[in-house]
Amino acid sequence: MTREKLKQLLEVYGRVALVVYFGIFIATLAGFAIAISFGLELESAKGGAGLLMASWLATKLTQPLRIAGTLALTPIVAGVMKKVRGDAVALPSKPEPNERPQS
Fold first, then answer.
1. Predicted local confidence at residue 20, as pLDDT
2. How much is the pLDDT for 81?
3. How confident is the chain (103 residues) per 10-residue block, as mean pLDDT?
């Protein structure tokens, strides 16, 4: 269900939603890598690969939370971008109740 909402969000906000999603992904991955590295003694390249895999796995487990964060943050980020840039970022507009959709 949340993946469908994410697809809808991508249709409405496009690049802004992608930037928010991947920003959260990278921040989560880096956060787990830093947290795990404090508990590991890396002595070889094999240890570095293990750190990356452990971080990726932990990040993958948080995917539902990251999608929920993306759903919540994207409209906020798009609104801030609209205020900063003017009308450069188009926000979805809701049609007026009496307005008919254009064909």
1. 93
2. 87
3. 78 90 93 81 62 86 90 91 71 55 52
DSSP string for the chain: -HHHHHHHHHHHHTHHHHHHHHHHHHHHHHHHHHHHHTT----SHHHHHHHHHHHHHHHHHTHHHHHHHHHHHHHHHHHHHHHHHSSSSPPP-PPPTTPPPP-
In angstroms, the CA 97 to CA 99 distance is 6
In a domain, residue 72? The reply is: yes
Q: How far apart are CA 101 and CA 103, in angstroms?
A: 6
The residue range of the domain holding 64 is: 2-83
62 belongs to a structural domain:
yes
